[in-house]
Amino acid sequence: MHATLPLLNALAFPPLRRGSLEALQVNLTYQCNQRCLHCHVNAGPTRTEAMTDESLGLLHEVIDAHPVHTLDLTGGAPEMHPRFREIVAHARREGLRVIDRCNLTILSEPGYEDLANFLAEQGVEVTASLPCYSRENVDRQRGDGVFEASIAGLRKLNQLGYGEPGSDLTLNLVYNPQGPSLPPPQAALEADYKAHLAQDFGIQFDHLLTITNQPIARFGSTLISK
Q: Does 122 map to a domain?
C-alpha cells in the first residue's frame, strides 16, 4: 500500500482549536463485512482490531463524568464489535443521543437479523452509507450485491418507522464521491436521492449528508497509484 503521510505533511493545513467536549465519535473496530475501495481505515472481513475492554471502561467513565450529549459509533462496521449493544444501551440510559454509522448490509448478515429492531427499540439514530441511488455505481465502489442488500436494509428500517414522517427514528443517508472529486451541492443531491429512492423502491429518509473521502490508507493508496 502506498504511503500517503509524506504528501499530507507537505500541506499547509490550518491550525485547529479545541472547543468544549460535546460529542464523541468512537471507532469500535476495523472489522467489517465489506471491503470498500474508498475506506480510509482499510476495514474489511479479515481485520480483527477492536476497542479493548479497558478502553471501553474509559469510554463509560467519560460518558458518565462529562457533559457529552452525542455518542457517534463508527468502524469498520461498529455493530460487529461484541459489546456494541452494551455500549449503546449504556449511552441511552445516560440520556445520550447515539448515532450508528451503518453500512446497511450488516442488517441482513447472519447473526444480525434482529439488529434493526434493537436500534429502533433504543431510539438510535442511523446514519447509513449509500454512495449512490444507482445499482451500478454502488456495486462498483462496494462490491457486487451491495446495492440490493442496502435497499433491503433501508426497507427494513422504514418498516420500523425510520425516516417516516412524524417518526422519532432518524434515518440519514451518506453520499461520498467515488474518485478524486468533491461532492455536488448537498441540497440538490438530497432531492435527487429522495425522488429516485421513493419512486423506484418506496424508500423514505430524513436527510442526505455529503462527505469527501480521506486521502489515506486504501483510498489514498488508490489515488497515488492512479
A: yes
The answer to whether residue 3 is domain-embedded is no
- Cα atoms found within 13 Å of the Cα of residue 20, Cβ hemisphere only: 6
CATH code, domain with 186: 3.20.20.70
Q: 110-154: per-residue pLDDT in tens?
A: 999 999 999 999 999 999 999 888 787 777 777 678 899 999 999
- Residue 2 domain-assigned? no
